[in-house]
Specification:
The chain is mainly alpha-helical and 181 residues long. It is built from ten helices and no strands.
Length: 181
């Protein structure tokens, strides 16, 4: 780590920025999420052209570090500040996912519904439908869960989420076609 700090000091701004990103990742991997996030916040303040990316990644690092409540706040702030970001659907997904992880199930369902409405062509739709099913299942709403899983099966885009949905359906003794995927 000391090597990265020394290299950072003696480099031009572009190289210093790259080294800072690597240092942040190393610090995060060691479990010091808040310290790692501060580096990305500094990068965002120093480079307005890439601030959006740094702000997104600081929110993602917060999630990755298991700080779900803080990640919710960061993703909400990112979405508010960058509503037309190319990462907007991902930011919404991580907002909903962090809400789920923090057990804010109503908020997670609302966020997932918002994603489906705002981003109807997003590659995240099967993931969202699957996790909506898991939330319904967690709440004891098995009929709604089975409908969500069947929608994942019907869309046929993601073998991974189709297999997860098929497993959830089979656990509830719902017949699953042998012809998938």
């Amino acid at each position: 780590m000391a090597y990265l700090s020394q290299a950072e000091e003696g480099s031009d701004s572009g190289r210093r920025r790259d080294i800072s990103k690597w240092r942040s990742r190393c610090i995060s991997a060691q479990g010091h999420t808040e310290e790692a996030v501060k580096i990305y916040e500094e990068l965002a303040r120093a480079d307005s052209r890439r601030a959006e990316d740094y702000e997104y990644f600081s929110a993602w690092l917060t999630y990755s570090g298991g700080l779900y409540e803080a990640a919710i706040s960061r993703f909400q702030a990112f979405i508010k500040k960058h509503p037309r970001s190319r990462k907007s659907d991902q930011a919404h997904w991580y907002l909903g996912w962090n809400q789920y992880r923090a057990q804010h199930l109503d908020a997670a369902l609302a966020t997932m519904a918002q994603i489906k409405k705002k981003f109807p062509r997003s590659s995240l739709l099967e993931r969202i439908r699957y996790w909506e099913g898991r939330i319904h299942e967690k709440r004891g709403h098995l009929d709604a869960a089975m409908v969500a899983y069947q929608r994942v099966m019907a869309s046929g885009q993601s073998p991974y989420y189709r297999s997860l949905a098929a497993r959830r359906l089979m656990i509830q003794d719902v017949e699953v076609s042998r012809r998938w995927p």
